[in-house]
Structures are given as structure tokens and as C-alpha cells.
Design goal:
Two copies of one chain form a homodimer. Chain A has 155 residues and is an alpha+beta fold. Chain A has one domain (6-154): Thiol Ester Dehydrase, Chain A (Roll), CATH 3.10.129. Chain A has one helix and eight strands; from the N terminus they run E-E-E-E-H-E-E-E-E. Chain A has a six-stranded antiparallel beta sheet with strand order 1-2-6-7-8-5, with helices on one face. Chain A is globular and about 50 Å long. The two termini of chain A are 30 Å apart. At the A-B interface, strand 3, helix 1 and strand 5 of A face strand 3, helix 1 and strand 5 of B.
Chain lengths: 155, 155
Amino acid sequence: MNEEPIQHRYPEDFCHCYGCGKLNEEGLGIKSHWDGRESVARFTPAAYHIALPGYVYGGLLASLVDCHGVGTAAAIAADEAEEAGGEGTDLPRYVTASLHVYYLRPTPLGPELVLKGRLKEKRKNKMVVEVQVFAGEEIKVKGEVVAAPMPRTMR
Amino acid sequence: MNEEPIQHRYPEDFCHCYGCGKLNEEGLGIKSHWDGRESVARFTPAAYHIALPGYVYGGLLASLVDCHGVGTAAAIAADEAEEAGGEGTDLPRYVTASLHVYYLRPTPLGPELVLKGRLKEKRKNKMVVEVQVFAGEEIKVKGEVVAAPMPRTMR
């Protein structure tokens, strides 16, 4: 497992994301780690990140799934570039083409949430990353992120 | 068009949502209005709500779609209850069963975003609400919210 979060290895210009950018002072600071097979992120929601008293806000959960999924795609792309003989410098930046979040059960506020991500499928230049969100032993949310390389127009 | 936002008509106990709860002081304060056929919400992201400099964060867009979609379902359910002869008091509270967000184009930071919502489909006790997010004249994001009546366990 690489100690440095995936999102901290993005080029500096792309480290301003509200969800995961190390240069966004107001942001959530989501940090994902990749071991070559699975990605893991840990996040404890704030007291105000609620949908109803006692339960985590679905939009926050969607944000966690989003940044963790896109980060996982970037880590996979970096591994592939390295295997192809590229230099291991900054990670490629992916963006979200679509995001799908299934709220299986209410997510309790309090415990640290653990996100796990894996590559589910490749579609031409896109990657479909499957994300699970755990509170304790139980999966509360399932997500799917369709990630695409950042379009040139956004650079 | 009802002047009072849908989300302000939820029972007080359910007004703490980070996205749209009038009692959440740290929250986004998303407000939706329903005219009996279509729902509309207006929201201007903060300077720090970015994915990359100049572009709105996808997790915020997912949050907007979520609260607007769930609010739309609640307004539709209230209309139906009224037609069925019920008293027009607090709105029923819906929760998100699943959320689907399609980022068609990058959403520029700056302009006020306009969300429009409509009922797409009914599935037993669930409603599928279609949401479009506009910046200016152009649709930037399409969303679909599968909303379900709040389970008793969350009350």
C-alpha cells in the first residue's frame, strides 16, 4: 500500500478539488490509498453532515464515492503506464462521466466510514470503478463511478 | 408556484439535512419550488466548490440533484394526498434509494445553476425523479433520483 494518498500525487494544478484536493482549504480532504488491487479510504463525517439526526447525508456519501472512484481509476492508469515502461511521475487526472450511488441502508453518524474500490470494467478509455462504503462490518452504500481521462478543454 | 420552498415544509424533526435543511446552520440551504408539474431550484456554488479551478465539484452537483429530487418526490406525494382528500399539513419525507448523475459537460463556476425536476416514473411506492442542471441555456448535468418514503427505522 502506497503511504502517500492517491489524490496527493495529482499534478499541483489539479489539487483544488473540494472533495479531495490537498490545496482546497475548505474541502473534505478525502484520501485514498491503492495497493495494486484495491483502494481504501477512511473518512469520519462531521456532526453537521447529516440527512436526518443520526444519519449521514447522502450527498456527502456520493462525494466520497466520487473522489474515491476517480482516484482509484487514476491509480490504475498509473500502474498501467508504469507497466508499459513510462516514468512514474504525477498521476493522470480522471474525471467523473457518471456516478451511481445505491443507499442500501441508512448510514449511522459517528463511526469512521471505510470505502473500498476496485476496477469493475473497462470501456474503451473509461473505467468503471465499484465502491463499497462500510460503517463497521456492514456495507451501507454501494457506488459505481464511470471515470474518464480529463478532457483537454478542462486543462 | 408555491413561494415556500418544499424543504421548509418538511416536519421540523426532518429539517436538519446538510443539503437542504433549514435548521442546519452549516448546510448548503438548497431550496426547491414546485408548481404542480415541475420543480425548480436555484443555487450559486461557493468559490471553493470546485473540482478543478473554474469548474464546479461533481459531489456538490450530486448533492443538488439529490435534495432537489427527493424534495420533488415529497411535493408530488403531498399533491396526491391532497387530491385524495387529506389535510394539507407537513410534507411527507422521502429519502434517496439511489442516485444517478451524468456529467454531460463540465459545469462552469460562476453562474447561478438552475435545476429542474419532473416525475419520470412510479415504481410501487417509489418515485423516479428526473433532474436537469442548467448553467445558462445549456444542460450540464442530468440526474435521476429514486426516492422512497422514509423507512420507519429512521424516525
